[in-house]
Amino acid sequence: MNAESARPEPPRPDSVPVGPRSWTFLTNHAHVLVCLAADPGLRVRDLAARLGITERATQRILADLDEAGYLERRRLGRRTRYELRLDRPMRHPAESMHSVGELVRAITA
């Protein structure tokens, strides 16, 4: 058994709580980073399905992360591959002493 097969499956969108008082500990931006850290070649369609959000919302998040320097897009033929900049600091002042990589590593460990 290799390290990849030992990794637990991510929760399905249908297991995410829904309703007026539902919430999660991470934002969709963080979820996108975590998913791309595991699979930098995910298509927008697959990423959106995994997170349970629309493709349009996923594209906006990718644009936000790209504009802020947290990822770089590289075209490989018809596909896009994402390179994460995990050394960048977290955006909120309360966490700015930590890098995005620390968060991603903590979630994917």
Structure, described:
The protein is 41% helix and 11% strand. It has 109 residues and is of the alpha+beta class. The chain has a single domain, classed as Winged helix-like DNA-binding domain superfamily/Winged helix DNA-binding domain (Arc Repressor Mutant, subunit A, Orthogonal Bundle). A two-stranded antiparallel ribbon has the order 1-2. Strand 1 (71-76) and strand 2 (79-84) form a beta hairpin. The chain is globular.
Total of domains: 1
Distance linking N and C termini: 17 Å
Mean pLDDT across residues? 87
What strand line-up does the widest sheet have? 1-2
* Uncertain segments: none
| Estimated share of beta-strand residues | 5-15%
User: What kind of sheet is the major sheet?
Assistant: 2 strands, antiparallel
CATH topology: Arc Repressor Mutant, subunit A
Q: List the secondary-structure elements in sequence, H or E.
A: HHHHEEH
Q: Name the CATH architecture.
A: Orthogonal Bundle
Q: Any idea of the CATH class?
A: Mainly Alpha
Summarize the amount of helix as a percent range.
40-55%
Shape by Cα distribution: globular
Rg, Å, rounded: 14 Å
User: Structural class, please?
Assistant: alpha+beta
CATH superfamily: Winged helix-like DNA-binding domain superfamily/Winged helix DNA-binding domain
How large is the count of helical segments?
5
Secondary-structure topology with pairs:
Blueprint: H1 3-6, H2 28-38, H3 44-51, H4 55-67, E1 71-76, E2 79-84, H5 100-108
Antiparallel strand pairs: 1-2
